[in-house]
Amino acid sequence: MEKQHDNPFQFTKAVILLPLFFVLTLWSVFWYELQFQHNLSHFGIYPREVYGLKGILFSPFLHGDIEHLANNSVALLVLLPILRYFYKEQSFVVLLLGILFSGLGTWLLGRPSYHIGASGLIYALVSFIFFKGIFTKYYRLVALSFTIVILYGGSVWYMFPNVKEGISWEGHLAGFLVGLALALVLKTPQFSKPIFYEWEKPDFNPELDPFMKNFDEKGNFNPPPKPEEVIREYFNSSMKVVYEFLGGKK
């Protein structure tokens, strides 16, 4: 049976349910606004105003029109399953901190207007998945990072002002920086290389191990005495040898 450490990627129902529940919540809020003609944009982030802080929690669930909502929904339906499947242990932390700190960054950097939408969270997810794959150097995650570049590499331009009217480039930039910070701070021990010691191997026999032979039956360190050194005669002959010194005459 394969150990979980050997296979850190485990498919669970949450891989499907998490993005579906999140996106369904976005569409439910949008339906409520249309059905009851109740605009909730005032629950968005209004930068550097105390009353605008509530938007840090509520703004990801608010969208100005159906195109904005549809674009963010598609991105979340792609990124959230990736996050949950490849980074199961860190997924909820990334999701929660991505919402909070991207919203806080928007509140600090944004223009004096209401900022709504899940774009900040999306940029946090893209940034985290890309950078974390590079930092771990795990071959599957590195490949995932390059896939993210292919899918969302072009979105990097929307972190700069005056690229497109009506978008919160401040929220995009804040989300990107938050994702990078989370990739640096959060540890992923499930991708570290396992260390195998001799005593962990299934065929380990303590009676044959040189180190274990230093312990007696009670577990006391009692190394066996060193064998006495035996001086061997490397030249032995029964023949008589006569040496004669021939000195030079003066």
Give your account of this protein's structure:
GO terms for molecular function: serine-type endopeptidase activity. This is Membrane associated rhomboid family serine protease. It holds the Pfam family Rhomboid. The chain has 250 residues and is mostly helical. It has a single domain, classed as Up-down Bundle (Rhomboid-like fold), CATH 1.20.1540. It is built from 7 helices and no strands. Helix 4 crosses helix 5 and helix 4 packs across helix 7. It is elongated, with a radius of gyration of 34 Å. The N terminus is likely disordered.
SSE order and pairing:
Elements: H1 14-36, H2 55-58, H3 66-86, H4 91-109, H5 119-136, H6 139-152, H7 169-185
Helix pairs in contact: 1-3, 3-5, 4-5, 4-7, 5-6, 5-7
* Portion in strands: under 5%
What is the distance, rounded to the nearest whole angstrom, between the alpha carbons of the first and last residues? 92 Å
Shape field: elongated
* CATH fold naming: Rhomboid-like fold
Largest sheet: none
Count the DSSP helices: 7
Extended strand count = 0
Give the C-level CATH assignment: Mainly Alpha
SSE string, helices as H and strands as E = HHHHHHH
Q: Any low-confidence stretches, pLDDT <50, length ≥5?
A: 1-5
Count of folded domains: 1
Structural class call reads mainly alpha
**Fourth CATH level, the homologous superfamily:** Rhomboid-like
> What gyration radius follows from the Cα positions, in whole Å?
34 Å
GO biological process, one term: proteolysis
Pfam family, one: Rhomboid
InterPro entries: Peptidase_S54_rhomboid_dom, Rhomboid-like_sf, Rhomboid_protease_S54
Domain Peptidase S54 rhomboid: 56-186
